[in-house]
Design goal:
Blueprint (H helix, E strand, L loop, with lengths): L1 E4 L14 H9 L3 E5 L10 H6 L3 E3 L2 H7 L2 E3 L6 H4 L7 E4 L7 H10 L2 E4 L14 H18 L21 E5 L3 H12 L3 E6 L2 H11 L3 E5 L2 H10 L2 E4 L14 H6 L5 E4 L20 E4 L2 E4 L9 H29 L2 H4 L2 E4 L2 E2 L2 H6 L7 H7 L1
Parallel strand pairs: 1-2, 1-4, 2-3, 4-5, 5-6, 7-8, 7-10, 8-9, 10-11, 11-13
Antiparallel strand pairs: 6-14, 12-13, 14-15
Helix pairs in contact: 6-7
This protein binds 1,4-dihydronicotinamide adenine dinucleotide, pyruvic acid and magnesium ion.
Magnesium ion binds next to loops.
Length: 373
């Protein structure tokens, strides 16, 4: 198979779909790889590094899209990239379609085969291709929140851990999955007073076993959520209903009643956000203020630490890229239900139920769509 790696073009996005070591693995399996010039330069990989492992360098994204059977990326294709997709071409990347109708419509129109990292599942109920970036974003959320609380950023002027004699900030983490757990770990490490909410009791048990009495693990009712959010200095939004738009758990009314200068980091923004007043921001301008609450809603947080993030992402995606390349998409997906859950759009049909329902569009079962492809 001929695999193409374009340079990422989202604002301040320096990650790359494949590092040279991954390219080498694919070439060892008998495949060809084309890489857009300077695709890895933001994390220190030159064209020569890719050439050294056997890749061919192409001058533009258009060349890569025109040549490749499968495009491997990081972020959802931007409008100019969507226009370059063609019928029968495989796209393997993050998509986050639920909050993004224009992208969904373009992918349907393209008749390409769109497999989303974030909806691939595993036998333990996890999301193996979302997990590494959720680890990064969860850890970063506390850094971002700590900065948002600084006075120069319109925050309350509070140090997360306080100092002896001065109480720490209260950090409220909504959702105790991969993002929430990593956020809690960092917040505890910085000495904050940490509350974690989830609606899955087993998840709360795990939080309790991991952190003991350093974290309060709270069952997430509307009542509990309101109480803790209104007391918070920093709220981290880390809920997920896989494939679907995030539920708006923190309302505009809550935001109005939060302490002036408090901050929210809505990590779930890539699925539309779990805070009513959230709207996606970029690394160039990460925050804005609503009712004196600092909002940080960057949809590609791991892009800020692209070296760590690219390696972490590639460690997870490589075996799946190899499977797609070796077996072809049909066999690779049909023989593995968990991998098949990654299929969101194929030949103009939507195969992710949550996306189809969210947009009132027709849903086609992935197995049926694949068998008919
Ligand atoms: N902004 C960014 O750059 C990034 C965003 N993300 C996003 O962060 C979000 C969280 O991802 P993960 O932690 O990997 O998901 P996860 O599936 O590991 O955890 C989500 C948690 O939310 C909980 N939850 C669901 N509904 C809830 C409710 N009503 N109240 C309380 N808890 C609830 C679930 O029980 C689960 O424990 C996703 O939207 C993901 O796409 C992930 C990485 C980077
Ligand atoms: C998961 C995601 O949205 C990101 O890594 O940018
Ligand atoms: Mg207020």
């Amino acid at each position: 198979m001929l695999i193409g790696v374009p340079k990422e073009i989202k604002n301040h996005e320096y990650r790359v779909g494949m590092v040279p070591a991954s390219v080498r693995e694919l070439i060892n399996h008998g495949h060809q790889v084309v890489v857009e010039t300077n695709a890895g330069i933001g994390i220190g990989f030159t064209d020569e590094d890719y050439i050294a492992v056997g890749a061919e360098i192409l001058p533009t994204a258009a060349d890569v899209f025109a040549k490749a059977d499968m495009i491997v990326k990081v972020k959802e294709p931007q409008a100019v990239e969507r226009a370059m997709l063609r019928e029968g071409q495989i796209l393997f990347t993050y998509l986050h379609l639920a909050p993004d109708l224009p992208q969904t419509e373009d992918l349907v129109k393209s008749k390409s085969i769109c497999i989303a990292y974030e909806t691939v599942t595993d036998a333990r109920g996890g999301l193996p291709l979302l997990a590494p970036m959720s680890e990064v974003a969860g850890r970063m959320s506390i850094q971002a929140g700590a900065q948002a609380l600084e006075k120069s950023n319109a925050g309350r002027g509070m140090l997360l851990g306080g100092v002896p004699g001065v109480e720490p900030a209260k950090v409220v983490v909504i959702g105790a999955g991969m993002v929430g757990n990593n956020a809690a770990q960092m917040a505890v490490g910085m000495g904050a007073d940490v509350v974690v909410l989830d609606r899955n009791v087993d998840v709360l048990r795990r939080v309790d076993a991991q952190f003991g009495n350093r974290v309060k693990a709270v069952y997430s009712t509307a009542d509990a959520l309101e109480k803790h959010v209104l007391e918070a200095d920093l709220v981290i939004g880390g809920v997920l209903i896989p494939g679907a738009a995030a539920p708006k758990l923190v309302t505009a009314e809550h935001i109005k009643n939060m302490k002036p200068g408090s901050a929210i980091v809505d990590v779930a923004i890539d699925q539309g956000g779990c805070i009513e007043t959230s709207k996606a921001t970029t690394h160039a301008e990460p925050t804005y203020i609503v009712d004196d609450v600092v909002h940080y809603c960057v949809a590609n947080m791991p892009g800020a630490v692209p070296r760590t993030s690219t390696f972490a992402l590639n460690n997870a995606t490589l075996p799946y890229i190899i499977k797609l390349a070796n077996k072809g998409y049909k066999a690779a997906l049909l023989e593995d239900d968990h991998f098949m859950n990654g299929l969101n759009v194929i030949n103009g049909q939507i195969t992710c139920k949550e996306v189809a329902e969210g947009f009132n569009m027709e849903f086609v079962d992935a197995r049926t769509a694949l068998e008919n492809a």
